[in-house]
Structure formats: C-alpha cells, structure tokens
Amino acid sequence: MKELYSTTMINTGGRSGTSYAEDQSLSLKIAPPGSKLDNVTNPEQLFAAGYSACFNSALALIKRQKKIDNSSTIKVTVRLMEQASFDYILAVDIEGHIEGLALEEAQELLELTHTVCPYSKATMGNINVTIKAI
C-alpha cells in the first residue's frame, strides 16, 4: 500500500477548545453542537464537510469513468445520536444531485460511489449511512 497523503490535527480543550493543524495551515475554534457562538465549528460539521468533499470527488471519478460530465452536488448531514446514557453514535444521510440525470441513474451512481469513497469505506459497517438521489 502506498501512502498518498498524511495530515495531523491537534486539539486542546475538547468540544470547548481549539483544533489546529500541526503545520499551522488551519486553526479552528471548537464548540459543542448547537452553540450559538460566532466563528466556531464542531466535530460533526467537520466530519460532514470532509465526507461531502470526499464523496463528491469519488463521484467525479465514477462519472469520468462513465464519460458523464454533468455537475454534481453532495449534501451530507451528520447526526449525533444518544442510544442510551453516555452511549453516543453518529448517523449520516447523503443526498446527491447530478444535473440532467434521472433519479434512478443518479441513485445507481451514488451507490457505486459509496463503494469507492474512502469515508464510506471507513464508515461501512460502523455507522448507519443512507444515500438518496434528489
């Protein structure tokens, strides 16, 4: 296996702290979900941002292979769920739109993408992920 990229983020203060890149290229203030503070994010938003970008890039690869050049938009919703007291899990909903394609064809491409995307591979069997063409 050949490593293509590696990055490191460091956090101090947990959900009420700061996360920053070891190389100083990114620094983010972190707050608990639902906080109404300016210029902060939370781990769920960061996961959704990464997953949506990765999934759309994997979809672009699939579209190139199938000679489809229609633009696509991917919306990822990450939900923090409490199963029981102090037992938390994530759930993910992926909605994808591919310009000019029928919903059935778009759904097939999205499901194929789910087998290729590294985030999807990492979550498969670990958290509930739903995929829907819109």
Automatic annotation (TrEMBL):
The Gene Ontology biological process terms listed for this entry are: response to oxidative stress
Return any one Pfam family short name.
Answer: OsmC
Q: What domain of life does the native source organism fall in?
A: Bacteria
Q: Which family does it belong to?
A: Belongs to the OsmC/Ohr family.
Q: What is this protein called?
A: Ohr family peroxiredoxin
